[in-house]
Fold:
Amino acid sequence: MKPGAYRSLGLSDQEYRHILKILKRKPSDTELAMFSVEWSEHCGYPRSRKWLKILPKTGKYKTLIGEDAGGIIVDGLAIIFKMESHNHPSQVEPKQGAATGVGGIIRDIFTAGARPIALLDSLRFGPLTQTYNKYIFRGVIEGIQFYGNCVGVPTVGGEIYFDKSYTGNCLVNAMCIGIAKQTELVRARAVGLGNSIMYVGSSTGRDGIGGCSILASHEFKEGEEKRPTVQIGDPFTEKCLIEATLEAINTGYVAGIKDMGAAGLTCCTSEMASAGNSGMDVELQAVPRREENMEPWELMMSESQERMLVCVKKGKEEQVKKIFLKWGLCASVIGKVTNDKSVTIRDNGKIVARIKAHSLTRAPVYDMPYKKPAHLKEATKFALKNIPEPKDYNKALLKLLAVPSIANKAWVYEQYDHMVQVNTIVLPGSDAAVLRLKGTDKAIAATTDCNSRYCFLDPYKGAQIAIAEAARNLVCSGARPAAVTDCLNFGNPEKPESFWYFKNCIEGIRDACKSFNVAVVSGNVSLYNESPQSSINPTPTIGMIGIVNHVDRVCTQNFKQSGDMVILLGRSKEELGASEYLAEAHNMIKGSVPHIDLKLEQAVQKAALEAIEKGLVNSAHDCSEGGLAVALAECCISNKNKIIGANIDNLDYNIRSDALFFGESQSRIIISCDKASVEKIRKIALKFKAPFRVIGKTGGQVLRILNGAKELICLPLEDLYEEWGGSLKRKIEG
Amino acid sequence: MLRAEISITLKRTVADPQGLTIRHALESLGYKGLADVRAGKLVVLKLNSQNKKKAQQEVEQMCKKLLANPIIEEYRFKITEE
Amino acid sequence: MLRAEISITLKRTVADPQGLTIRHALESLGYKGLADVRAGKLVVLKLNSQNKKKAQQEVEQMCKKLLANPIIEEYRFKITEE
Amino acid sequence: MKFGVVVFPGSNCDKDCFYVIKDVLKQPVKYIWHQDTELKRLDCVILPGGFSYGDYLRTGAIARFSPVMKSVAAFAAKGGTVIGICNGFQILLEAGLLPGVMLRNAGLHFICRHIYIKAQNTRTRFTNLYREGQVLNIPIAHNEGNYYIDSDGLKELKDNDQVAFRYCSAAGVVDGSANPNGALDNIAGIINKKGNVLGMMPHPERSSETDLGLRDGYFIFESIVKWLEVKR
Ligand SMILES: Nc1ncnc2c1ncn2[C@@H]1O[C@H](COP(=O)(O)OP(=O)(O)O)[C@@H](O)[C@H]1O
Ligand SMILES: [Mg+2]
Structure:
């Protein structure tokens, strides 16, 4: 490498001086490369770590915080989960970028010894009106289905939003959930002096060299020259790697194991040694490779996919190796565990790098300056009185149902195998997916949520709402909110304004999690999400899992039968700020976000959950984007084989009808139940002080909504379904 | 009428899992002496045109814009009279 | 070293929706005058061998046995020195 | 009676089939690694769904050369019961144990959802518990389920009553609008001439427990058990 190369590797002059101080000499090419990736935001979190520390690590369930993923313990069963971003690679090569994102997060789960049982994906794109956004959207979906379907892990949920702030910088956040007996878990550590370090999986090529530091830590400009190579995902090899790894762990001969994700060998060697408080001596000649004459630093930086590093108990190498060979994978002992706390990398015996593991993994921590953006003053200025009410509420509702962010997502999730492993009892299309835990009568519910428009206008409240809504979705499925993973997608942290967003979102997550008493067990940070036009909306994606205590008490969102009573738990306020309706009908991203009162939220959720668990509820659906009217429509039509109308004639709040129908007041759940259950549910609501109101009745072939005595909405279910059900397909294929 | 045969393959530096899998399959069928196997895509166009020169440029454009992603793929094409 | 480039395409008698989709995509990008678009597969082999004749027969077999399905696909290949 | 579930590299419904046979059907079952060739003492061999060898090149094209497939062919030739589900069906086609081929879905998308199929021939060891013409609600999950065979082949299938299942509407109408993937003549599953080998695209193992909604697919497995019992 030429002098000053460290800059092109993303290291600052200051960081370079720091490295000289640590080594007390000039770094070799390999050492420089290793520092550059380990200290990049992607691996070392230098700019975000200080703030990640404030997230609660304990909650109502016993937590496990691992090196890669984290999880909770339920009846001796470990539920491991994590979310990770693959934004920049997906923007560069949508299909392979998304595919390798899925592959990476799956490895984070089974590297802990847990069998992956579900995937979710939280996606954000620019508007589909632009051809290039369409191309990225199609490519990303293609990549997720290509990888997820083949690897045999059901993709059971997720979310998709469209907003112009994501034009030129899409977001692809993938979440994976795995389960294991608590006793089967392994750590990503190199322990046991003299134990062997074994490389397993695919061979190494020059894939994505420097991708980790350069790709993930620099704003991506269209047509930028320093374009990194994107990796190709190989779900077939990953599937074999899952089986081989779990089989190997089962032998008890695996002392530690870690997946080679970002920064491949560098990340694995240094982080495993550091976590094990040990050292490692590795010979690069033993690394299986795909290409000729690769430089040592290339081998250390390569991000070739589907590889793991295993710490194997001394003397058991052959037994472990046999398993990987049986599955058609590479397996090669490349080194030993030492006790000198250093990572020593050799090429033909010659030392090419020797660095204290801790100095690599303990990246410098920067205290980034933050400043409230000036534009917020203007953006939050908003007077409802200046907004004309719609003349035709039917039109307004139909239009809102067709908005891609609200419309039916079946076009996407029907391309995902969401049933393999025969655990999915609530399929995509309801508030949260539910998976049974075979051999128990419990089930897991999972969801991802984040309204980035809220976070843009008020990051603290926006993040709290993301947590509240995720919990609400779980409750509507009959689950108790249990624990959180997050994926923090933000713009360039060197801009005080975008760091202000980062800080406030994290504080919002912290406070909301504390009030729900749920821990953040894992997560991931993606900064520098900027397109040539702008930085993205702050997007702290929340992944939350919940526990259903009795499989047969699971609940879904669609009305089940005519003649049921429709109940609204929660309060509707005169709020239109930050709503989808305001953006759609008035082209305004303005106003203050809906008020969120976490006490009220919990009251509503506790009431709904108890009613569901007592078997009193036939359907439950939360109100989110599009407000009450959209939520009611979804209750009517979201099971296309059984659409059921409703007559909502008892809604007299004295607030404007547009706010009542389309406003996004928080902490509201729509329930349907048999007439006979109404009083029981009322009592439960009373007990928790949750606002309760019978607002109508199911049945008929139309959705009819009155405000006071005025009938404002009356639409045939077919029309509702046509707009909502067909919209996405029309906008993509049409 | 012109016929354009476009071959799209992954760049040398990019892993080709499919090619590798095909290679193993061929080897297990007893075919030795394979130095390399790469898989790719083929697109065959028929163009109502006589102007080979113009076709050259058009097909070049098609590859750049739609058929191949220059970040991972490379393409070659051959245009012949029909 | 020999290089075998094998093109595998669907028989005329078999519908090729992929080719059709590519065609529509190209047309929507404004490319007129497409008489036909067919999509296919490409397999490129490198053989450690000088014996072109033997290679011919081997590759022929590979196609018959594994690479193409005679019910729906047809294949052509070209062997060149490297 | 003993079931065997073959495991190819890339199979991903092997565990599901194993689970349903063992815990729902309550019959003895074992895994068969694709390199094993020992099928003795088995009554029924299941080729499960998934992506054997990643479906690279062509679905089932590589798996059919696995050592176990020679034994499966011999097993079938001796009248042994073989069922291929989804990728298993595709492998049976490539191996020539069933006629025809699978093309990519007409819509060029992977499709995962519940669809309806009609039991065409209920006089087989796989379908004897269904009523003639019974409509089953059952999931599909595939990219290549677009069954194709030339006209002579199709005629032969029909003449020999080899079409086991066809895609249809909830009401049992077999037509284009009920065809999810473009399969010729709405064919969702076929048997061989001797009637001891079944290939089908839908997933009966995903439709075998009330926990997961319907269990319309379960009776395929139970039919096999009943048939074997009667035979004894
Ligand atoms: N925003 C976050 N909140 C909580 N934990 C986080 C967050 N970001 C990263 N972590 C944790 O830091 C560790 C390293 O994260 P990461 O580098 O993304 O994992 P990996 O090494 O698999 O890429 C993991 O345990 C991860 O869960
Ligand atoms: Mg990772």
